[in-house]
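Per reviewer request, we include the raw input and output of the structure prediction for the construct analysed in the revised manuscript.
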Amino acid sequence: MSIIDKAMKKLQDNKSGSVAKRITPKIRTTKYKEKIANSYNNECKLHIDRKQLISAGLSISAADGSLTVDNAFRRIKRPILANAFGKESALVENGNIVMVCSSLPGEGKTFNAINLSMSIAIELDKTVLLVDADLPRRNTSNLFGLEEEAGLTNVLVGEKNLTDVIVSTDLQDFKIIPAGTKHHHGTELLASDKMFNLITELASRYKDRIIIFDTPPLLITSEAQVLAGLAGQVVLVVEADRTLKHDVEDAVEMLDSSKPIGLVLNKTQTNSGSDYYGDSAYGAY
């Protein structure tokens, strides 16, 4: 049984006859303006409001107020880290470049990209760089209050260097590249030679980092398929009780089957009936 069949079976098992309630996460953060002194220098860092982060469902608070990670994301990240840094990593080209996508909009890919990034940064000694490559929607940039900051598009058009647009945060080992200035050929930039060169640079320059791309839905723009060809690994987010099986299959057909492809069944219901993101039927397709 394929991972899609397993996920769809799980979807049917969870289904109660009604469509799961849509949840839209919100993060309130300060703008990237505040100067925060650290032990090295006065570095400008993005302050992330932990309480808002937790209330948005983007992480879980431990008793001491620290951030911990839901078990679902522990399960998701293990094979990703193994493909990037484990014994089989030599077989996965650009294994530290991970694309998080969906078939269609609204399935929760941005939520999963953020939570996956934070789960790795919080629990492991790996720096995570989250890249907002969904240029039409820019949800990652908007959620973190970075919609006005220079970012990916500015690098692709030659206005900024890569290091100029990496936003450090006060969450250790978690960094962000915003979408950048809106550009009338934004989606086309994602399929350009400059994007290929940028991903090649990221993969080689930051071999010890996980770089996670929040990308456009596969069935909406052809550029998403190009990005999938550049990434070493792909995580496909599927919304429970909403995404049609043939849409998932069409999306998977657009991907390179020789690469590790993981599927996350998202927005399932707990036994108590409450909805939450991240419950997963995850594995190689």
